[in-house]
Specification:
The protein is 27% helix and 19% strand. The protein binds zinc ion (ZN).
Length: 332
């Protein structure tokens, strides 16, 4: 069993849509889009006073846009929108926010590679998830507001300003430095708030759970390098988009690195008993998790295996087999 990570999940008392001042320079508004993938919902941050920057506007919910704007004090204006990455719970509301406020958007760039929908290449957990459970999941999904049903990549977003690693943007009383942290998504940026020695960590380092790394846009090699990259900074606190603040982030990041190494060891352990498919061992590896998380977890396991194939430590058993989600893998 991998060592248990001490997650930070306690958001305290909060009301959806209400602005909470969490530090002198940061206010947070939590969007009402809780799912098994977003924890309590998207936490949108407002940074500074007067000239305000927004970090991750969120999903395209009109009510959330109203809540963000209502968080402003008289005389304040939203002038900047920083996007950590192009997933549907982070970037889509930027368009409406820009129209309403005239804010300029900042991000690494549009979404990278999108996985082609290949009906032949889907993990099948039907041996482990009953028809009743499937039906329940379908029902819960059907009940979501239409705006929240589009999951995954936001391929429509493109920032006004393309940021690179190390770019510094200053507002009237805040300074943000971008740190490129690919892995969860190839265009993922973390944003350092220099005045408070803190970091908006997006989905790269989250308080409530580990990140999903889904190929082809997500890469385990990049993710591990991006975790190690953060150890080179001396941030006092992280503000992830989902979940509460993370104190002592260096220890936490180190525990993620260890966790991933242990996950790889687990995969190797499973493959030692002979060639296997991802769907054969994910239910055991992720037995204590909500079964709906097995699908993204299969993506993370796939990312591990792709990395192992690239580095000559595993291969696909099928003749001329591509390293697909449903391929059979063996150790080399
Ligand atoms: Zn994401």
């Amino acid at each position: 069993m991998p060592t248990t990570i001490q997650h930070y999940q306690d958001l305290g008392d909060f009301d959806y849509g209400a602005a909470d001042r969490v530090t002198p320079l940061i206010r947070r508004v939590i969007c009402k889009n809780p799912t098994p993938f977003t924890y309590k919902g998207t936490g949108t941050y407002l940074v500074g006073q007067g000239e305000v920057a927004v970090i991750d506007p969120g999903p395209p919910l009109k009510s959330h846009l109203d809540d963000i704007v209502n968080a402003l004090q008289p005389g304040e204006a939203i002038t900047h929108a920083f996007i950590t990455h192009t997933h549907s719970d982070h970037s889509p509301l930027t368009k409406d926010l820009k129209e309403l406020t005239g804010a300029i958007s900042y991000g690494f760039g549009p979404h990278g590679a999108v996985r082609e929908d290949d009906p032949e290449d889907r993990v099948d957990f039907s041996a482990y998830i009953s028809d009743e459970e499937q039906e329940q999941y379908r029902k819960e999904f059907d009940e979501l507001p239409e705006e929240l049903k589009r999951e995954g990549a936001d391929t429509e977003f493109s920032p006004d300003v393309f940021l690179q690693d190390g770019d510094v943007i200053a507002g009237s009383n805040w300074t943000i430095r971008s740190i490129h942290t690919p892995g969860h998504c190839s265009n993922h940026l973390c944003f350092e708030l220099m005045e408070e020695a803190s970091l908006f960590s997006g989905d790269h380092v989250m308080g409530w759970a580990t990140s999903v790394v889904g190929p082809p846009d997500g890469s385990m090699k990049d993710y591990m390098e991006s975790l190690r990259k953060l150890l080179g900074f001396d941030h006092e606190q992280y503000w992830p988009t989902h979940g509460p603040a993370i104190p002592e982030p260096a220890n936490y990041v180190q525990s993620f690195i260890t966790h991933r190494e242990e996950r790889e060891d687990q995969i190797i352990g499973h493959l030692k008993s002979g060639p296997q498919k991802i769907a054969d061992f994910v239910p055991e590896m992720y037995a204590k998790y909500d079964k709906r998380l097995w699908y993204p977890a299969a993506g993370s396991v796939h990312a591990h295996l792709l990395h192992m194939v690239e580095t000559g430590r595993a291969e696909v058993t099928e003749d001329h087999g591509e390293p697909k989600l449903t391929a059979t893998y063996r150790l080399l």
